[in-house]
Design a protein that fits this description.
By secondary structure, this protein is an alpha/beta fold. The chain is built from 13 helices and six strands. It folds into two domains: about 110 residues, no CATH class; about 180 residues, Rossmann fold, CATH 3.40.50.300. The chain has a six-stranded parallel sheet with strand order 1-6-5-2-4-3, sandwiched between helices. Helix 9 packs antiparallel against helix 10. The chain is elongated.
Length: about 325
């Protein structure tokens, strides 16, 4: 059983199941990555969907606002006894921090598009110092990021859960595994630079208690893809709808490789637009395989030759995957 499946790479998932033929695998995620969604469409995964919210969860108002408005939302909520997250893409303003963020989000292609780099990325370390000395002076502000040692992280999370930290400045380390029902405002800086699964997971850190909850996106999208991601998060709270949008924006990646994004070499079909036709084709293939599992029959000769001609160099990957 693999929880938060979107956080694992292709090779990670293979290593978990390698050497165990016939193993039953259950993967769980609130936001399937494009490759996973496409594998479901192709029939490599059976999909079960839970459509109801867990008990006690609330709907979350998602807004696109400027930084001053985001700060006002935090101040308003904390004055009323609530708590807030203040999320940035970087740990600090170093090149290594930026490179790590790019690798995790997989947004290389659009990073260097015209105008994309004119927006300064926020960093947790600098925001933490600025907020506690400025706009949030006199309040309890904490910081959480991946370079802290485990005991520091656990102590910070404990203080946040106990209400002793009012505003938690953090990176996407809070994306999963954080449950504080009293936290009701999530501010995400440079939201246009995050992938859809990350945005949805971050938003899910609020709306867990009795307080009305808000997710405030602070974004300046400069590319078509970043605009589409921000618009998708504003439009829905449904993880599978966001996964469909992600599939249309980024593509499913390689089915016989490790890339988890990128458009397949289809001349006509559209994986998201032609979903109903694809599902019909998937069912037809399943019927064919049931009749002729090893494609040895005469009616499978053309299909067998097509696979040999187009996929023979990838056959080893297919057999190990």
């Amino acid at each position: 059983m693999i929880d938060e499946q979107h956080r694992f790479g292709v090779r990670d998932r293979l290593n978990l199941t390698r050497g165990a033929p016939g193993l039953d695998v259950l993967v769980l995620t609130a936001t399937p990555i494009p490759r996973t969604l496409a594998l479901g469409l192709y029939g490599d995964l059976d999909v079960s969907t839970l459509t109801e919210l867990p008990p006690g969860r609330r709907d979350i108002v998602t807004e696109l606002r400027g930084e001053a408005e985001a700060l006002e939302a935090v101040l308003e909520e904390t004055r009323g006894g609530g708590q807030a997250y203040w999320v940035t893409p970087l740990i600090d303003e170093s090149k290594s921090s930026e490179r790590l963020f790019r690798e995790e989000e997989g947004l290389f292609a659009e990073w260097d598009e015209p105008g994309a780099r004119t927006v300064r990325l926020k960093a947790a370390a600098q925001e933490y110092d600025s907020l506690r000395k400025g706009a949030l002076s006199g309040m309890s502000v904490g910081i959480l990021h991946g370079r802290m040692n485990p005991s520091e992280k656990e102590r910070t999370m404990k203080l946040f859960r106990e209400g002793k930290i009012q505003v938690l400045v953090a990176t996407t380390v809070v994306e999963v595994g954080i449950d504080n029902p009293n936290a009701s405002v999530m501010v995400i800086h440079n939201a246009e630079r995050f992938g859809l699964s990350t945005l949805h997971q971050l938003r899910g850190r609020v709306g867990r208690g009795s307080r009305p909850s808000r997710c405030v996106l602070v974004a300046q999208p400069r590319t078509e893809d970043s605009r589409r991601r921000v618009e998708a998060v504003l439009a829905t709270q449904n993880g599978f709808d966001l996964a469909e949008a992600d599939l249309a924006i980024r593509g499913p990646g390689e089915f016989f490789g490790t890339s988890q994004h990128g458009m397949p070499p289809l001349k006509i079909a559209d994986l998201s637009g032609d979903r109903s036709l694809l599902l019909q084709a998937r069912d037809a293939v399943r019927d064919w395989i049931a009749r002729d599992p090893d494609l040895s029959g005469p009616e499978s000769a053309r299909l067998r030759e097509h696979l040999r001609r187009h996929f023979s160099e990838k056959w080893h990957w297919a057999m190990t995957a």
